[in-house]
């Protein structure tokens, strides 16, 4: 069955849950609650990747994430660290994380892939074209499905070249990252091509702009926190296309959705 990964952003400015956790303890409580709701992993992030976001320093990112990762790991939670920086990946694996989720697929930090190979943990390589502050200038594609899949095939080859076992790699099309609204739908419709590459596939549609646009009333986008039902619908449909995991803010909704999809498929 498709697994659900809970999003735990310990940032003041992430697009939908930024500023939600006032202390590491409240973030840890939320992460433990996600596992109770059915999350297989909790993905901790300390740097916002929302379009236009400026980067935070390495020190700030470390200060935000390491205590939360350590506390969650000590509670027995399977923790993923959402970072593009090799030193953050290294510190978080030392603190107990067992997966590195890199939205740049190794392109932002030249030492990331070798570091992950050495750490011997699972690695999410997402499709990425530029840092968040610039990414809206890189949204031109002739054939988005083919171009994203080819770029991810190249990232997979780079991972293997760096010494990461192929079965450690998870590919993610990077919905909302340097994508126009229609590109996200084309990528979801093109999931069979992506799943056909071979590695596990992760989808991160949760609360993103393309869902806000779909649900807009009089061109006013649906607010982020009211996009969870649409997110769960994407999770159910993605589950029927063979994705390994969905990365979401509302864990319970997507756990229910993937269960519905699994029961439906089993009966088919
Ligand atoms: N999206 C965000 C952050 N990290 N990681 C992966 N692998 N895939 C995604 O689509 C993705 C991600 C966007 O920001 P959020 O943390 O507020 O959802």
Account of the 3D structure:
With 268 residues, the chain is an alpha/beta fold. 43% of the residues lie in helices and 14% in strands. The protein has helices at 24-37, 58-74, 86-94, 112-119, 144-161, 181-189, 191-195, 209-214, 228-239, 251-266, and strands spanning 3-9, 41-45, 79-82, 99-102, 122-126, 169-172, 200-203, 245-248. The chain has an eight-stranded parallel barrel, surrounded by six helices. Helix 1 links the parallel strand 1 (3-9) and strand 2 (41-45). Helix 2 (58-74) packs parallel to helix 3 (86-94). The longest helix has 18 residues, at 144-161. The two termini are 15 Å apart. Bound molecules: pterin-6-yl-methyl-monophosphate. Pterin-6-yl-methyl-monophosphate is lined by residues 7, 9, 14-16, 45, 49, 82, 101, 103, 124, 126, 172, 174-175, 202, 204, 206, 247.
Major sheet characteristics: 8 strands, parallel, barrel
Helix and strand sequence: EHEHEHEHEHEHHEHHEH
Q: Which regions have little confidence, pLDDT < 50, spanning 5+ residues?
A: none
Spatial strand sequence of the major β-sheet: 1-2-3-4-5-6-7-8
- Characterize the overall form: globular
Question: Which keywords apply here?
Answer:
268 residues, alpha/beta, 8-stranded parallel beta barrel, 43% helix, binds pterin-6-yl-methyl-monophosphate
What is the element layout, followed by pairings?
Elements lengths: L2 E7 L14 H14 L3 E5 L12 H17 L4 E4 L3 H9 L4 E4 L9 H8 L2 E5 L17 H18 L7 E4 L8 H9 L1 H5 L4 E4 L5 H6 L13 H12 L5 E4 L2 H16 L2
Parallel strand pairs: 1-2, 1-8, 2-3, 3-4, 4-5, 5-6, 6-7, 7-8
Helix pairs in contact: 1-2, 2-3, 3-4, 9-10
Bound molecules: pterin-6-yl-methyl-monophosphate.
């Amino acid at each position: 069955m498709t697994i659900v990964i809970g999003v735990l952003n310990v940032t003041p400015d992430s697009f939908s849950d930024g500023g939600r956790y006032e202390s590491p303890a409240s973030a840890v409580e939320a992460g433990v609650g996600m596992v109770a709701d059915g999350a297989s992993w909790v993905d901790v992030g300390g740097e916002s990747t929302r379009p236009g976001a400026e980067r935070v320093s390495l020190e700030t990112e470390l200060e935000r994430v390491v205590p939360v990762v350590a506390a969650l790991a000590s509670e027995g939670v399977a923790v993923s660290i959402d970072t593009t920086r090799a030193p953050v990946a290294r510190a978080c694996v030392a603190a107990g994380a067992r997966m590195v989720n890199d939205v740049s697929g190794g392109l932002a930090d030249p030492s990331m892939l070798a570091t992950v190979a050495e750490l011997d943990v699972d690695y999410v390589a997402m499709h990425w074209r530029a840092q968040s502050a610039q990414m809206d200038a890189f949204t031109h594609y002739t054939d988005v499905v083919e171009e994203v899949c080819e770029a991810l095939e190249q990232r997979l080859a780079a991972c293997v070249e760096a010494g990461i076992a192929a079965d450690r790699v998870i590919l993610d099309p990077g919905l909302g990252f340097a994508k126009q609204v229609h590109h996200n739908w084309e990528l979801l419709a093109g999931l069979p091509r992506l799943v056909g590459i071979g590695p596990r596939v992760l989808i991160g549609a949760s609360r993103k702009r393309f869902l806000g646009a779909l649900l807009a009333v009089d061109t006013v986008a649906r607010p982020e926190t009211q996009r969870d039902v649409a997110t769960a619908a994407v999770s159910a449909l993605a589950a029927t296309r063979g994705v390994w995991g969905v990365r979401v803010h509302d864990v319970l909704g997507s756990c229910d959705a993937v269960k519905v999809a699994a029961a439906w498929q089993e009966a088919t």
